[in-house]
Amino acid sequence: QGQLVESGGGLVEPGGSLRLSCAASGFPFSAFAMNWYRERPGHDPKKERELVASITSEGTTNYPGSLKGRYTISRDNIKATVFLQMSNLEPEDTALYFCNAKGWSGQSFYSFWGQGTQVTVSS
User: What percent of the chain has pLDDT over 70?
Assistant: First the structure.
């Protein structure tokens, strides 16, 4: 069973930067697409989490238009870790950030989630 453990969240002032990490185990990391999602305060649990960045197994990245340029996702397949570099943070970036892995192993498709790491942007 795949496991994802996020770290790197915390309190940062507006305009600051944070780097989130997500350590993976228990599945073929290099073959899986990796994603970062977030839940902002007041998130409706009936709705999907907001995708903030994704990276394919080949390393192709994708960002929603509103976040492009401030967020950078990367992966280290040797260390089975995915990163999210966030810069020029705004109070609206305050959220619980989740790491997600999606991919095939054998005949089955899997989607694993971490427990989340809190990012608070405030002065």
Answer: 100
- Tokens describing residue 117: 């790491």
Q: Is the pLDDT of residue 30 over 80?
A: yes
User: What DSSP element (H or E) covers 119?
Assistant: strand 117-121
C-alpha distance from residue 60 to each of 33, 47, 93, 107 (Å): 9, 26, 23, 24
Output the CA–CA distances (angstroms, integers) from residue 52 to 6, 27, 47, 77, 78, in the order listed. 15, 23, 15, 20, 24
Asked whether the beta carbons of 34 and 54 are under 8 A apart, the reply is: yes
Asked whether the predicted pLDDT for residue 72 surpasses 90, the reply is yes
